[in-house]
Structure formats: structure tokens, C-alpha cells
Write a structure and sequence with these properties.
single chain, Jelly Rolls, 2 domains, nine-stranded antiparallel sheet, 5 helices, 18 strands
Amino acid sequence: MPLSTKAAHLALPAALLAGCTAALLLQPASAASADPSGPRRRDFAAGASTTSIPLPAGHGLAARDTPPFELLGVGWDGPPDALAGTGIRVRTRDADSGEWGGWHPLETDAEDGPDHAPHGATAPLWTGRSDGVEVDVRPGPGGPPPGLRLELVDPGRGTAAAAARTLPAEPARPADAGQVPRPAIVTRAGWGADESLRDQAFEYTGPVREVFVHHTATATDYACGDAPRVIRAIYQYHVKTSGWRDIGYNFLVDRCGTVYEGRAGGVELPVHGAHTLGFNTDSSGVAAIGTYVGDQPTQPLLDGLAAVAAWKLGLTGQPAEGRTPLTSTSDASRYPKGTVVDFDAVSGHRDAFNTECPGNALYDRLPALRTAAARLQTPPVPPTP
């Protein structure tokens, strides 16, 4: 939900919190406050930073000035479910206008992520360029977990590209077992990923037989040129606040239909993502940038989702309109661990987890999206001689 345009600074509805985004592990501060219990700022490449502000004893935070940020969330040192029953809401101050926005609740359930998360974090909230924050915390029955902290993310300018910025679309080729040409994909270098943040090793799963569609629960009417900033902010949060190896999604698609490489390891390989708790194995997570609870997805966005799904499933000969049995690996998913679930080959996040993601407006378009992806997998009938 990132934007440098004025639209990025509009107040965001609570529905944005129903998204499918992810987070990261705290590291020692590179620039610490003299007060060890005060704010800590960690600087990364090209002006990016994450500022941590402790919320001691589960108390909130009075309205205060902050360094500039564009995304926020709350992390803690306990298990992912340690905030059960806790209510957290925030409001922020627009850095351009100086006006305070309304209150927005943070989603405290861990709906995205690896099957064994190192610790907890809320879903992140895209705020647009902001320089002030206020936090209200209402502890649940278990009380606040240790290390509760507010995380403010500035995605910076992105690192200079040392590699190809875009993998061009493959030329048409004879279809083989449902394979289709690869769509053009903006690489991690293209969206300015700081590769020093992520785990340097790669993890792979079995052949990808399932695609789970998400939305990022960020602003919807963004300029497409701002999409890389949104992705960088989500990447920082997933790695530095939530403690994940890398960004959780395998691919992302913006409202103009541009496809972006997500988790590192090779776009054609079965990279093990952290996008659908309990069902990250043998699947790929593709996130639509925006919030599609009420806002309708654009046709270019739908076309981009269909193209990457058709291509990724086609690599293993999986029909886009087929079915895929997967086994749950987590009791925290929608199905108890060990349950075999028969999914549509292209499913929504809500099919595997109790969440709104990818929003009603996008979820309702999944049948048509499957049909479009299947059409891409169907080889054209050669003309009659």
C-alpha cells in the first residue's frame, strides 16, 4: 500500500488490515538511543531504515514525532499467538500535511508466514509518508508478551541494480504438457532489494502444484511506479520485524499488471515461501499489491495474476483448472496438521486460513482467473493447411 503520490497519504480503512502480508526479526540497532529503553534505529542500504520503539508492560504510546516512515507494525519476542485477545490500534501523522489520521486496528493473528515462525508480529500497515504516531494497546487475558515494540519502516530509495532489472517475456514456443511462455518479471534488483538483509541460503520445496492468491492489504489507487517502494517496505518488515528468511511471497503483481520476483532463489525453481501458514510446501504465493475487500482489481492485475499462475503451474504440468491435494503442516492453519485438503490449483489465501485475504472483490474473480490461466495453458490450434 505504498505511494509517494498524495493518494498514498489518504486515511486507510480498517479493511486494509485483512491482508496477507508478512514481517521480520529484530537485529541490534546500528544507531541506538542513549536510553537503552528508548527508540532504536537500524539503517540499511540506500536510506532504508527500521525504527523500533519499545511498548513497555504492554502500554500504548502517546502521540509523538518520529523519523519518517511509510509502513508500521508491532513485534514481540513471544510465540506468534502471544497477542491473542489483545487489541492494538494506531494513528499516524501525514508528513506532508501535518494532519493526524484516524485510528486503525492492527491484525494480531499470524495468517502469513513460515510454518514455524521464530516469534510474533502483527500484519503490517502501509501508512504513506508519515512522521508521527500514536498507539493504543488493550492487553488480552494473557497480558503483553515480552519485548513488545512498535516497528516503523522507511523503504528508502532501493539499492543500485547490479543485475538485470527485468527478465523479459519468453518468446512463444510450442506448448508442452501445459507449459506457457514466462511473463516478463521485474527482478529483485529491479525493485531495489537490499540482498544483505535476507538469509543468504535458499530453501526449496517439491514441485509447485498449487498457487495461492493474496493481497498485500496496502493502498489500492497507487501509482504503479511506487510499487517497488511498497515491496521494499514489506520485505524489510518480513525480515527485520518478523524474523523471516526473506519476503514471504514468491511473486507480486501491481495494478498495472507488472509481475515482480518475490522470495529469492530463482523464479523458475520451487522456492519455499512463507505465504500460507500450513501449506507453504509444493505451492507458490502470488500477492496482488493493494486491498481488494471492496475495491475491484483492475483487468491488467488479473491478467498478470493469470499469466504467472499459468506459467508457474505449467512448469510441472499442473492444469490451472485442476485440483491439488496438499497436507496441512500446522494446526494454526484452517485445517488440523496432517489433514489432506483438495484445493483448486489456483486458490485464495482464505481457502487455507481463516482470513479475509485476498478480499471479497478479488476472491470472487478467482473462477474467471482460473479459466484465463487454463486458456493460456491450451496450445493454439494450428491453422488448417
